[in-house]
Amino acid sequence: MTSKVRQAVIMVGGKGTRLRPLTYDRPKPILPVLDKPCIEYLIDSFACSGIEEVILACGYRSEQMVQAIGDGTKQGISIVYSYEDEPMGTGGAIKLLEDRLDDVFVAANGDVFIDFNLQEEIDVHLNSDATVTIALTPVENPCEFGIAKTDETGRIIEFKEKPKPEEVFSNLINAGVYVVNKEVMGLVPKGTMYDFSKDLFPLIMKKGYRVQGHVITGSWRDVGRPSDLLFSNIETAERKYKGHDWSPQVTSSKTKGSLYVGEDARATFCDLDSAVLSKGCQITDSIIRSSLLMADCVVRSAYIENSILGEGCIVKSGARVINSILGDKTVVSEKAILKNDSGMKNA
Questions:
Q1: Helix (H), strand (E) counts: the chain
Q2: Does one domain contain both 188 and 314?
Q3: Sign (positive or negative) of CA dihedral 335, 336, 339, 343
Q4: What is the rounded distance in angstroms from the CA atom of residue 241 to the CA atom of residue 146?
Q5: Does residue 182 share a domain with residue 282?
Q6: Considering the entire predicted model, what is its pTM?
Q7: What is the pLDDT of residues 107-149, one digit of tens each?
Q8: Dihedral of CA 91/95/97/100: which sign?
């Protein structure tokens, strides 16, 4: 059986503390992946799978979210905004919307960078007669996520949030996209912090509801960490622009690995290896390795490795920036050395 699910809720209320200082000035779902807010990739996937209405459950810096994402005209759908005065968790945020939800809807975490076929998950949900279906994806280190074990039918028979290494029983983790029967929202208490993974899923499994797993294909990352934001950019550049001719924006330069150069960005006399140069960046006589430079950065005769530079940063001659995250409009003086062995340790 296939059927249409028309409505999705995306939770975008978090403050993105692990991405500071980048999130001092913006909510994390609008951090860029190739000059496009990362949440737009999720919204685009939903629109391509027939979703007609997306509700963004906002909190932190919601006015910037509205300005960056708009009303859905670009995707041919309706995007509406719901506001919470204080963080309520995934379950609590959706509870506030209960009266306006369809009988079956999609819910997703806003810090997920994902490019996949949602309709496949919807079909699995409806064909398995599940109450909730959870998108799953394999990872090398599952300890930072909720992990799931499924039986031969795909039904989730065990679920544990952020297990210790000795508690790991699966490498399949919760990818943060759910198909939900509205009836389970009756189990979520009103006006309190309540989380899908920690609170609701264990409860409904205990009560005997069918919770189905669906292993997704396509790109997935949790962009709650700087390293994942960086590599979401690098991997997307590889996927979308492999073999692309970037001249005349990149001149008299060596290039290797993934590369993206945004509108009005230029690189001259450079050595670029897996570099994302966002719109307006001006780079001269520099080495850039495995790094994301957000819009309007200026780099002259410098070395940047495994780092993220916020918008409008200036890196002067002889400076070295390694394993670092720079907030917007940071100025790195001549011959300065910035090296943070902990800031990008997961990259």
A1: 6, 25
A2: no
A3: negative
A4: 33
A5: no
A6: 0.86
A7: 998 877 877 788 899 999 999 989 999 999 988 888 878 888 8
A8: positive
